[in-house]
Amino acid sequence: MAVEEEGLRVFQSVKIKIGEAKNLPTYPGPNKMRDCYCTVNLDQEEVFRTKIVEKSLCPFYGEDFYCEIPRSFRHLSFYIFDRDVFRRDSIIGKVAIWKEDLQKYHNRDTWFQLQHVDADSEVQGKVHLELRLSEVITDTGVICHKLATRVLECQGLPIVNGQCDPYATVTLTGPCRSEAKKTKVKKKTNNPQFDEVFYFEVTRPCSYNKKSHFDIEDADEVDKMEIRIDLWNASNLKFGDEFLGELRLPLKFLRQSSSYEAWYFLQPRDNGNKSLKPDDLGSLRLNVVYTEDHVFPSDYYSPLRDLLLKSADVEPVSASAAHVLGEVCREKQEAAIPLVRLFLHYGKIVPFISAIANAEVRRTQDPNTIFRGNSLTSKCIDETMKLAGMHYLQVTLKPIIDEICQVHKPCEIDPVKLKDAENLETNRENLRQYVDRIFTVITKSGVSCPTVMCDIFFSLRESAAKRFQGDLDVRYTAVSSFIFLRFFAPAILSPNLFHLTPHHPDPQTSRTLTLISKTIQTLGSLSKSKSASFKESYMATFYDNFNEQKYADAVKNFLELISSSGRKDHKSIEQPILLKEGFMIKRAQGRKRFGMKNFKKRWFRLTNHEFTYQKSKGDHPLCSIPIENILAVEKLEEESFKMKNMFQVIQPERVLYIQANNCVEAKDWIDILTKVSQCNKKRLTVYHPSAYLNGHWLCCKATADNTPGCTPCTGGLPANIQLDIDGDRETERIYSLFNLYLSKLEKMEEACGSKSVYDGPEQEEYSTFVIDDPQETYKTLKQIVASVKTLEQEHAQYKRDKFKKTKYGSQEHPIGDKSFQSYIRQQSEISAHSI
């Protein structure tokens, strides 16, 4: 989800690896161990939670989390909790990283010390104030000074224990006085509109003095005064109201101006308490990759995009812009991700991969090593399978993976690791059954393999067979090296990375999946001496169960089917595909004539056939909405029910209102529901952004409940994977990579010149580049550099224009914004340098 900024879209995303914690404080009891989990928070809003690791002070999580960030934020925070069965889970400590500091730790494993957490430091949100210092002449003719404090509104206050009923206290304090006043409580909102004014008498009445509006004593007193605004959550609990944040402003700054209006970030309360030493709470290992893409309108990217898209037609392909990107990037994966997405978007992925695969096959000398390296070709095919093959994995592997994770059958076949109560033969039989079932499901799933993958496999097969005509098996191994080695085997080994399970499996299940993955990988490899390929003797013994010819024949038939020319795509798979599920809160739809329209927690389940909800997971559905009945899926304004993260599923007869757990979950559900219903013939073009309550629509005030919508529907996500990608965003990412590695581009230009002129032995510094045609490559490099420098100038101009228009203290950049202050310093330095 992008934030619009005057024609430019800003996309934020974060990819996190939560490794492990160590040296957590012992539990104050006889056991001393803890049951810990870790949460990921945008400010105070939880967006992800790991599994619970029981009975450990050094818990290993090993979990990955990726999300598109749909709103602005100040901190990315990580909290370590200790589960408590009888009471609320307790916080052990936290790691909070300022948004502007995220680049310091970009893609690096880093140990962070856990910090102490207390209620007074956990604040978020901003407040809008207007202060006015004025003279008042009394009836007797003397002058006094009064301060008017107007509390207009707040935004983004934290939700405490599922609710937020905020109010503000306004206090004028001085050396010898303290006067406090309070706003009304605003129910069920974290964006309260107060708009209340409070008056305070600042100075004592005195005779008017032309030299100064204050006598000496009063001036000293005013300089020591301050106005303090505290935000609180009105709680019904006996522990009292919860502190949400405060703001302290000295009155002396009003001596320069009698009126002042601005937005401010709320600050923690300084209560003088000393926090614990960081070493007392342990540490947490994290790897964080935060990305912020500033995307211009499509026309800006035309030269670079056109240069990239014609890569498949360039002869030789090593002289193309896409291949050059793979040469200059430090990791091939960096280049592969945006390239694959861009070519998928424009429907050119198959010719592009065919071209670079042909070039790689021509350079390969041994058929046994074909596509075994981490080349641009391998990484691009890996990324294509991940994007196009997710539903394919859901159909084939997910049911059995779920069973393995839930049943926990013992499958250890290493005699050294065998537990006392386990039987080796029983474990072998359990493992054999699992391998047999997964192997059968895979080899019978050829008709479900996505068309784009089949077209790529056909190209690989033909290219390999033509290059190594004496090897009859190379047409199979070229395909199996991807579909088994790089697709099915990794998905079995780490199902959480392929969205087959929500978390990394427990150690016993992980070991079972490792043994299955090894066996499936070997079965699919079609190597001559399979038992010898295992280092472990127990694996070689176990593999004897699968040495029959029927397994090799099944693999060949499967590979033949998925790499055949002219194969039709079986779009309508009879078996429903589970796309997403989880608990959310829904409002009654009014299906019954009488009854309250209250809110209830339900388990929602979305497949490619229907959208259902039930009381709990596994129960019979209470309501089922066919996909063809979903006319639109849109956000719902918070004012409707005073609830955040709400969206609406619009049907022909009624609307289903749903509240997600957080902003990331809400975005995910809206996106996938929109995508799966995008091709419905009766989709709406307009909708109501607010609810129909008390006889009228809150947005347009129309009284009839069947009144057509008042707001255009959002564009949504097309159902076709080729279009389910933002081409401009991917081109912007490619520009960023070229700009990052600009020095390598220049080095490559030098290498082209060296090869063209001397045509002799390569210099060592140029030997890393693949340059088949120096003149063509040089032309491409000049075009790339020109396009990159043009875009760089556009970004620089945008930053200068934004700097001129930005106002400190505005709603977008409240006072107290550390990131904006650093931005001001940075832009000031750039301006001074340019002058």
TrEMBL record:
Do you know which SUPFAM superfamilies this protein is assigned to?
C2 domain (Calcium/lipid-binding domain, CaLB), GTPase activation domain, GAP, PH domain-like
The C2 domain, residue ranges: 1-112, 123-264
Q: Which CDD domains match?
A: C2A_RasA2_RasA3 (cd08401), C2B_RasA3 (cd04010), PH_GAP1_mammal-like (cd13371), RasGAP_RASA3 (cd05134)
Which InterPro entries would you find in this protein's record? Answer: C2_dom, C2_domain_sf, PH-like_dom_sf, PH_domain, Ras_GTPase, RASA3_PH, RasGAP_CS, RasGAP_dom
Tell me the GO molecular function terms: GTPase activator activity; zinc ion binding
Does the UniProt entry include the keyword Metal-binding? yes
Q: Name one GO biological process term.
A: negative regulation of Ras protein signal transduction
Q: Which residues form a coiled coil?
A: none
Q: Where is the Ras-GAP domain?
A: 331-525
Which keywords, in A-to-Z order, does the entry hold? Acetylation, GTPase activation, Metal-binding, Phosphoprotein, Repeat, Zinc, Zinc-finger
Q: Where is the signal peptide?
A: none
Domain PH, chain residue ranges per copy: 577-678
SMART domains (alphabetical): BTK, C2, PH, RasGAP
Q: Which Gene3D superfamilies match?
A: C2 domain, GTPase Activation - p120gap, domain 1, Pleckstrin-homology domain (PH domain)/Phosphotyrosine-binding domain (PTB)
Pfam families noted in UniProt: BTK, C2, PH, RasGAP
Q: What is this protein called?
A: Ras GTPase-activating protein 3
Its taxonomic placement starts with: Eukaryota, Metazoa, Chordata, Craniata, Vertebrata
The gene behind this protein is RASA3
